Task: structure prediction
Amino acid sequence: MNIFVTGSAGFIGSHLSEQLLTDGHCVTAIDNFDPFYERDVKEANLEGCFTHKWFAFHEADIRDQNAIEELLGNQAIDVIVHLAAKAGVRPSIVDPAGTYGANVNGTLHLLEAARKLSITKFIFASSSSVYGNNEIVPFSETHSVDDPISPYAASKKAGELLCYTYHHLYDMDVSCLRFFTVYGPRQRPDLAIHKFARLIMQNRPIPVYGDGSMQRDFTYIDDIIQGVVAAVDCCAGYEIYNLGESQPVRLDTLIKEIEKAMGQKAIIERLPNQPGDVCQTYADIGKARDKLGYRPHTNIQKGLEKFVRWLNDSNG
Result:
């Protein structure tokens, strides 16, 4: 298959592109190198892909509808995997218009291009943030997601709704994947595990919002990629899938496990809770297990060991 991957130079996109190439697919990839973090980091993410003859990269922005339609029109694309987004709950509170421009309008541009060019399979990267402060755990795809508590979460819910509309109107096969706190090598530097580990390494305080009781369903990158590849292979109808580890970890426990993996103690800076942060995430992965054969197998201890090994190597 020829698979079109947006956000290919990012954390998840670069890992996915490598795996699709390993599996024998052609990958046409785009990224706009958003300055949220350094361009050279993203370029380094793609080093393994650039050596592959079935990889074609284009610098392009999903907010530019003409550029997207031109790129897609020049390829025989079988599936679009849409990972590109303005990421982050807190940045979305600072710049909600920017979040919506990329996450909602960008998704619409891709769906429109797919419609015009008769590309019938579409994978959309959604987020566990759509569940808001749902008090029923684990979070199921059948639960209401009508109460997002950040512009980022609302933009992902809007993306899911657009995907359903295009499925309904144009018989497009769409799978929306709700990712649960993905971590591992190449993780964005602003995210908790990467940020904490670097600060610990530098003997600097780590900012801890709240009392440490917040829980996240941390999901190792290899497990997420397994789920995304399965969704590409099984894309039919309109489906929503949770992709998580289904093993929530408290923030204070996470810090202890990072300390253990690094062999170094953290200096804690206590701060108030942040607006937009949910209290817990916890994925019910029964549907993904049954329909996609999704089988996450990397617990937090093993995943942190792999992450710290990568971090040490990349700093060396």
Remarks:
- The longest strand covers residues 121-127.
- The chain is about 45% helix and 20% strand.
- The chain has one domain: 2-182+220-246+283-297.
- The two ends are 38 Å apart (CA to CA).
